[in-house]
Design a protein that fits this description.
The chain has 326 residues and is mainly α. 71% of the residues lie in helices and 3% in strands. α6 packs antiparallel against α8 (163-183).
Length: 326
Amino acid sequence: MASKMNDRVDAMSFSEKVLHSTSNSSELDNFSEKLHAVAGAVSQDVDIIEPPADMVRGVPGRLSPWTLMVVVMELCERLAYYGASLMFSIYLQKILGRTKPQAVALNRVNQFMSYATTILGAIIADQWLGKYKTILGFAILYLIGLVLLTLSSADFSIDGGFGFPGFCIAVFAFIGFGTGGIKSNVSSFMAEQIPTGYKATKTPGVYEDSKLTVERGFRYFYWSINVGAFIGQMVCPQVAKNKSYSLAYMIPAIVFFVGIAVFVGGSKRYTKKKPQGTVLLKVWRCIKYARKNKQEGQKHWLDGALGAADQEWNDEFVIGLQRSLR
């Protein structure tokens, strides 16, 4: 956006030079027509950051196709997760011969990993890879787990004694990490696809407001979570009951493969922000520094980090951290 505005200013400055240095009226007319055409095209693409003076009300804008691609990916991921995980407890008891307490415990470990690994996904995205590459990497890991879960639940795997080991590897080494890594990044990545600012509509005084557009995007996003979870929980257990668990686990794998394909399809159009560093590691380094420089008589155990001019934080950051970690 800034580059477009700079181009427009440069074009205007150049036109003034031409007006002062050229006496041929036909050349001036031709140049003026071209200049106004370029300026008009630029002005149509530039969003207004501050609320316009003539703004009467704001309306949500349309979601771009690549924003909806992220929503579709989330729908497929939720269908895969709930469709597969809902069957874990019964599958462990009925097919793999585990007791009910064992099945419940294993299922809760899976649920714990699904949320605990969100921290890992956030750190990787913010510190090194960015959201797009992190989502894609964890999605591939997730898909490998679903394929392995499908194969381990087949008759030849159960008969060969690979059913339970295959389940543990698929769920705890792949699916648990995959869903957590995606969960921590996908919603914010969707919001980043919506340009910030106000855009004029055909109605005077009415502007597209990016805040309202983001709200619309999140309505679609959470709608996709509910729809995906509902379909997964309705379809997969019925397939397991009437056909086989292997086929029931194959459905989430296929659906999620489609979701990844749709997600990758928008790669060239996505807004991909570069990683800026995670605040979690910054907090950890600040705490470590404070403990190392702790002195007697300090009121707070983080006071040792105050006044550190050669570090990445300032006193305001430390004071805010002190309020959070009393």
